[in-house]
Predict the 3D structure of the following.
Amino acid sequence: QLQASGGGLVRAGGSLRLSCAASGRTFTMYSVGWFRQAPGKEREFVARINWSDSRTYYKENLKGQFTISRDGAKNTIYLQINNASLEDTAVYYCAARYYDGGAWSSWGQGTQVTVSS
């Protein structure tokens, strides 16, 4: 199971850190990813991290603004959002997949991030 948290209201240019707490059979996860869905838009991939070696991958145009990390002791994945812009307003979801190239089959409930001007 995945539980996303940490969303809220942030001013443009500010920072926010989202958390995704994993429970259950975490040792079977291959990677955990963050996705977001803005109003009226399709859900998009933001970043992912491999559970075993913490290797990270980002959507190209978001690299540098977002940082994904993992705390193995807490079974928690973080998404740091820096220099937030209005376009970052969205519901952010974390998801897990269980093998390389597999479907994102476990999803958290989402956490709302709203960026104000």
User: Anything to note?
Assistant: The two ends are 35 Å apart (CA to CA). The chain has a mean pLDDT of 95. The chain has no helices and eleven strands. The CA atoms of residues 30 and 102 lie 9 Å apart.
